[in-house]
């Protein structure tokens, strides 16, 4: 069938129409005319496989990555960066209008990432076998077909060099990809790097790695921290297993952000594009403003935002559910001599309810996971008397649905999109909300 692509979908696929029914076409770009085969159809939408491009977008470029189409992680790598930013801005605009009826003139131009390639400070890659060797790769979208990867062009360059060195050592010791029946082998290689130092976690079955291999890995230049995490559960959304063992080196990797040193454990979340994270934290600090008595940061992770705010507030309280992240954040405050910030390990809604009954909160910063704020959290915010909320979101749909609820008591102020993930369809947004 012939289809003209009218807009882009939230996962970076082109959307055209067959008899007014939307058809999603991965790999096609807005404005293109394409030939497709329909692979799936229900009453509401269809999915199509791109067969041929009949009329190319002038913005189409050749992707630097040879497995871009099969890997699926960088759908926008086939168009120039300006166009990628336009798609993201439009995705946010559509969501905010559709779900929250927000005036789109409030949306500021998206802030581009300085680096469009080699920007990710962490990789979390599945392991597989190719020609008898252990390799990293990705699963094709919506399938269990493993696509081996030579080089990933969005990982920082030194991260890639280290990943390849680690794989070489693992292969020398004949480590194999995970076998579901034997529950042995390597499932994921997780690697994070800052300032030439690396924290590596081998997610494996229940096995003991040879000590010679551990020594060789620890001897790699820059290897700062080596962990094993045992994960044998088949259907788990968690990459890490419940058991974590430090095989050697230091417990924490350290990130220097301005004057602050942040210690990070393998399981703690940290923003993947360090430069854009710094820019985003500075922007949050500007929106929070000076001379606040009490600022609460819910979903605080390792406390990067709280640390960026501690100078402008009398007191900052971070709330985070992952214990490792809370321990990192507390160590960070202690090591940096900051005594007006504290971190509580709890569910954000529960703890905010408690705090808002006891204290007068000036500003609340929320940076929830992709699923957005849950109903309990929305109810606590609406019932509270918090004057200002700064909402940091990595998902325009959940952000917009949450804003629709919060607008009952809050007016939307500035809306600032950031491009944290060039070549993907993801967009990060900061929204300022003022209590009416
Ligand atoms: C998008 S991250 C934000 C981290 C942090 N603001 C930063 O910039 O590094 C979301 C965080 O929310 C935490 N989280 C998820 N559910 C939570 C809950 N119910 N209560 C508190 N924290 C939660 C996650 O562990 C994660 O650290």
Description:
The structure is a single chain. The protein contains 10 helices and 22 strands. The strands form 4 sheets. The chain has a 7-stranded mixed β-sheet, with helices on one face. A 7-stranded mixed β-sheet has the order 18-17-16-19-20-22-21, sandwiched between helices. It is 26% helix and 33% strand. It has 3 domains: 2-60, OB fold (Dihydrolipoamide Acetyltransferase, E2P) (Beta Barrel); 93-114 and 270-435, 3-Layer(aba) Sandwich (Rossmann fold), CATH 3.40.50; 122-251, OB fold (Dihydrolipoamide Acetyltransferase, E2P). The mean pLDDT is 96. The chain is α/β, with parallel strands linked by helices. Helix 2 (81-100) packs parallel to helix 10 (396-406) and helix 8 (348-358) packs parallel to helix 9 (375-383). The N and C termini lie far apart (52 Å). S-adenosylmethionine binds at residues 269-271, 299-302, 304-305, 319-322, 325, 347-348, 367-369.
In the CATH scheme, what's the topology name of the largest domain?
Answer: Rossmann fold
Number of helices: 10
Per CATH, the class of the largest domain reads Alpha Beta
CATH architecture of the largest domain: 3-Layer(aba) Sandwich
Integer average pLDDT? 96
The count of DSSP E runs of length 2 or more, i.e. the number of strands, is 22
- Estimate the strand proportion: 25-35%
CATH homology superfamily of the largest domain: Vaccinia Virus protein VP39
Which structural class do the helices and strands define? alpha/beta
List descriptors.
alpha/beta, single chain, 7-stranded mixed β-sheet, OB fold (Dihydrolipoamide Acetyltransferase, E2P), binds S-adenosylmethionine, transferase, 23S rRNA (Uracil(1939)-C(5))-methyltransferase RlmD, EC 2.1.1.190, 10 helices, Rossmann fold, 436 residues, 3 domains, methyltransferase, methyltransferase activity
